[in-house]
Amino acid sequence: MSVAKSLPHDAAPLHVTGTARYVDDIPLPANTLHLAFGLSEVAHGEIVSVDLDAVWAAPGVITVLTAADLPHENDVSPAPLPEPMLAVDTVHYVGQPIFLVVATSHLAARKAAKLGRIDIKPLPALFSVDEAMAADSRFEDGPRIYSKGDAAQAISQSPHILEGSIEMGGQEHFYLEGQAAAAMPQEGGDMIVYSSTQHPTEIQHKVAHALGTHMNAVRVETRRMGGGFGGKESQGNALAVSCAVAASITGKPCKMRYDRDDDMIITGKRHDFRIDYRVGFDDEGRISGVEFLQLCRCGWSIDLSLPVADRAMLHADNAYAIPNMRVESHRLKTNTQSATAYRGFGGPQGMLGIERVLDHVAHAIGRDPMEVRRLNYYRDMGDTGPGTGQRFGGKHSPNAEDIGPETTHYGMPVEDFVLHGMTEALVEKSDYFRRKAAVSEWNASHATLKKGIALSPVKFGISFTLTHLNQAGALVHVYQDGSIHMNHGGTEMGQGLFQKVAQVAAARFGVGAEQVKITATDTAKVPNTSATAASSGSDLNGMAVQAACDTIRARLASFVAERAGTDPADVRFEDGAVHVGNQALPFEDVVSDAYLARISLSSTGFYATPKVAWDRIKGEGRPFFYFSYGVAVTEVVVDTLTGENRILRADILHDCGASLNPAIDIGQIEGGYVQGAGWLTTEELIWDSEGRLRTHAPSTYKIPACSDRPDIFNVSLWDGENREKTVYRSKAVGEPPFMLGISAHCALSDAVAACGAGYPDLNAPATAEEVLASIGRARS
Amino acid sequence: MSAIAVSTTINGDEVEFLCQAEETLLDVLRERLGLTGAKEGCGTGDCGACSVMVDGRLVCACLVLGAEAEGRSIETIEGMANGDELHPLQTKFLEHAALQCGVCTPGFLVAAKALLDANPDPTEEEIRFWLAGNLCRCTGYDKIVRAVQDAAQELRGS
Ligand code: FES
Ligand code: FES
């Protein structure tokens, strides 16, 4: 069968020869025009006058558009509240597009875009969460609060109480392919758009509004992205809409791509947070209550900030059954880029908050943080799945069936908890205890270089928290020659979605994956799709493709069964053949016979995730179909004179259910971990006092490089099955491993703690400067 | 501005083109010659996605002017395979699943080939530090390093 196989990424042969086409590589007609935005240099202010004479006069400029020149809607928001594409009257951040240049070349457009003379009367600008709180500058009427039990009372009655706070920075996506789009005008005002987007349907929707037409006049195609990570969920709207509007005005094809600096200055990033906490616990470290205050910096427009902040709240428990909990979340509006989706979608921030609490509690009572984590884990449900492969579970806690699952602070039962077994397995595999002892020994005998080691778990909820998004469609054709054409609403950004789903299609028909043609995501083939986000790509689209295949398969089965006088239920599709009675008919022959017998060989498929129902205002219900789990152990070394640090070794055990493609899933885990560790260590975004982003290129913003790769990096899959009925019992893998990077931050904290008796209070990112400052705190 | 006429050799073929003085070699390759394998990840020499060879030297095509190609020999990812026969580095990238979105892949392959041409038996650390000028946001690098190690071994064996 073609599932559970490590087949290479479908386009890998194209990638290694440099022939895979991204938007910027698509050959376009020679008369194609190129676009660039003129940007605000002021963080907040009223536009007094706009003088674009020099822009118009620049070489190669065809036209220049301001908000007033747009023929229809000026809106690129993914949310119900509007977000103007070009500023109207007021600017809200440094980098906000004010006008659009259309020119004969990319360079001509960019050069001209620098020549605008915009007079802006500055208004007071808000940059920090404290400033925004003081000014009550926020989205939504007030804070959201999710709670369970009475946290304040539980804390006050606890033997020990701690308070603390952690700041965590944002993160630039740094998809290696920047934002890009192109539009080709068609007859009758129709428009074809090529977009590097995770959400073609939204591009279609926004373009239709901008052109004053209906969605049926706009077709959006996305073959692949050069990385997305959430940064192409909504941030590509402005480019696609600009191209479409310019194409409709000029009648020529139009293309727009941001160069790296513009990309970093204009587009939103991961939300930075400050999380304050108060926790009550006993001598063992068992937590009786926690209160969190989550201050989330959203930037100037709402974008996806509400669901991001919700998800941060929903992951404030991570893997821990805390009987009393209160999470208060403020979504603060500031004069900075509009923070947006980024792998984990708020989950990492919420999770870092509680992992920090566990770390702090363990430090206070002098216990191994790993043990304190285990002590507070949710009840083990290890044996309840239909086939949890490695049955380590069930040893640590009373029989789960007698007591039932514990519930989260939003009332969802945790029915699939497998972290007890996974932790035990990884502790053993990574030789945790021996290495922990070796680290202590090293630290006792070395003054300058201090080592640290830490284990951290991940429990990540899978589903869109906006319940209606949990749907997907597919379109499958079988041609007369037996070849299969597959299309679905998911987009390929390198995560291997297309390959995994093609493997599902091939498995349904019992043919090889090479027989399935993978095609570009196209709003004309599968309509009304959700963004490829929330790790849901394979879960949703795999099921939709499976449904489409099964419809065709059932028609073929009835056809051959009737011919052979048997029951369709006995027909099997395996090894390239259709098995009926004791005959094995080649799949191609059955297909061509079915065609001659006038049987439809094409079908749509549809899937809606079951069980999910959620009230985001009350904070009650089941937002997630299931949870994905993972656990990581990271060892680091810190130079106490400079704060420089590196990861020496990382060991990971991750739960992908029954993996559809182990090689692709392991790739996601490795990449996710490194990206997560990057967020918490070297990736620092710096804005100056005027609100200008000073880290807007790889020269100043440091993502992990090849030389940062851990010397030892062991990744394995937890060999279980999803207890929920997902596609071949697999689990989503896009986001969860990102949060394994938290173990690197905890390990750094552990190393710093070896410098003195104080708690390091390590913020994120733990740059060399921050590590050095925390060494000072540990020593004081 | 009048265009500059340039004669050069690309992947063994003699090529002539006209370009403006300000155009980079990357612009010329991608926009004038249709060789879109080299990518622009930053335009400032910091990401390696545009890596090509000029007279046997690894360079960032975004930092070289198109006019500087005059009289030189340029090698790009498009010339790495011998017809349908992939270079061992390309094969190993496939086998090790050393790519995800693939934008960084051409640059890594060109840079890795430059390393192995000069040093057929690099240590793991030499590979990591040589490739530190090529950024990849997707893979976490582990499989890339393994693929290069494996290709080096195969190239030495053959
Ligand atoms: S594009 Fe040349 S180094 Fe990044
Ligand atoms: S595979 Fe995406 S940047 Fe390397």
The profile of the biggest β sheet of chain A is: 8 strands, mixed
- Overall pLDDT metric of chain B: 96
Q: Which band does the percent of strand residues of chain B land in?
A: 15-25%
Using the alpha-carbon principal axes, give the shape of chain A. Answer: globular
Determine the number of helices of chain A (DSSP H or I, runs of at least 4 residues): 20
Major β-sheet of chain B, in short? 5 strands, mixed
Low-confidence stretches of chain B: none
Put simply, the count of helices of chain B is 5
The CATH architecture category of the largest domain in chain B equals Roll
Write down the CATH topology of the largest domain in chain B.
Ubiquitin-like (UB roll)
Gap from first CA to last CA of chain A: 61 Å
CATH superfamily of the largest domain in chain B, called what?
Beta-grasp domain
Looking across the biggest beta sheet of chain A, what order are the strands in?
Answer: 3-5-1-12-9-10-11-20
What is the N-to-C order of secondary-structure elements of chain B (H for helix, E for strand)?
EEHEEEHHHH
Q: Span between N and C termini of chain B?
A: 51 Å
Which chain pair shows the most residues in contact? A-B, 58 and 56 residues
Mean pLDDT of chain A: 95
Question: Which strand order spans the largest sheet of chain B, edge to edge or round the barrel?
Answer: 2-1-5-3-4
Structure report:
The complex is a heterodimer of chains A (780) and B (158). With 780 residues, chain A is an alpha+beta fold. In chain A, a hairpin with a 5-residue loop joins strand 9 and strand 10 (191-195). In chain A, helix 6 (200-211) runs parallel beside helix 7 (237-250). The longest helix of chain A is centred in the C-terminal third of the chain and has 28 residues, at 537-564. The radius of gyration of chain A is 27 Å and the shape is globular. The relative contact order of chain A is 0.12. Residues 384-400 of chain A have low confidence and may be disordered. Chain B has 158 residues and is α+β, with helices and mostly antiparallel strands. Helices cover 34% and strands 16% of the residues of chain B. Chain B has helices at 25-32, 88-95, 105-118, 124-130, 142-157; strands at 4-10, 13-19, 51-54, 57-60, 73-75. The longest helix of chain B has 16 residues, at 142-157. The radius of gyration of chain B is 16 Å and the shape is globular. Chain B starts with a strand and ends with a helix. The model of chain B has no long low-confidence stretch (mean pLDDT 96). The chains are: A alpha+beta (780), B alpha+beta (158). One FE2/S2 (inorganic) cluster sits between chains B (99-104, 136-139) and A (176, 227, 494). The site of one FE2/S2 (inorganic) cluster has 12 residues of chain B, from loops.
